[in-house]
Amino acid sequence: MATAADTDAMRRAITLAARGLGSTSPNPVVGCVITDASGHVVGEGYHQRAGGPHAEIHALRAAGGLARAGTAYVTLEPCNHTGRTGPCAQALIEAGVARVVYAVGDPSPQATGGADTLRAAGVEVGHGLLEEEAEAGNIAWLTSARLGRPYVTWKYAATLDGRIAAADGSSRWISSPESRADVHRLRAESDAVVVGSGTMRSDDPHLAARGIEGAAQPLRVVVDTEAAAVRPGARVLDDAADTVVVVADDLEPEEFTRTGAREVWTLKRGSRGIDVPELLRALHESGIRSVLLEGGPTLAGSFVAAGAVDRVIGYIAPVLLGAGPAALADAGITTITEALRLDVTQTVRIGPDLRVTATVPKGA
Question: Which residue of the set 44, 56, 77, 189 is catalytic?
Fold first, then answer.
């Protein structure tokens, strides 16, 4: 039975884990708190960057000899393998920790089994404490480990009546400066930002994260099926971040080389342009674990139709237009019974706008 002290320590570990968002991929974000034999916190740590020490190692170093006979609270089951760093389960055993409590089991086949190793060494192991909170904070990596594709967040900005642009196509700016600054935070926490050819033509977007100190830039991905929207001089081709242009694999080489991009992927077509599952597989194989979909209504509709949207973040401005394109185009939904119903997880005022966050229920 978890005590109030157990809960407090795990909640602190979850808070610590969040500090690694945007800098640990393709590894998970993990936090760890260590208490001594009398229950006092003696060490804390979080996974700071891919290839660096794991959260448990940072916490053990901070605790030193005080970890012996103590308890380690970890947001993710301690790893059981040697990669760029050693197995954390073994490090906890060698430090003499008497008890380990973790929130979420590790679903990756190469790292799972840490709990069994700990038990075999005589360490008391508990799991499931604040599991939902810890999972939410690490959902991108967990989704990629379970499904073999990145976690996808579709972000859009719209008026109160659901328009993303006026009837004449003008759209700058529907949302407030505060909302636009918040989008840069989302970019900094994502491995890749994806847009389509329509957005390229209308906005010539830059897609890099700006105004976020120390941000690791996301991979900029333009889905340009016909190789007709990206041209030399496009803002997305500058040196602020890496860029990939994705074109259909049935084009002639001279067609897709005219984009001016240093890196072009050729992928198969689906019924709505580039095949979305194929695109997500290619991104996953490149180490991408989280995608921020900033594309327009057509690309968003393709992702929704493919069942490839996990979270939606809408910035709703107190503005009325009455005409103009809607936020979402054809998503393969023809009747109200087929509607994709979401769970609203957060509503926040951002300047004059309202940011609504909703997730797709499991099994939807």
Answer: 56
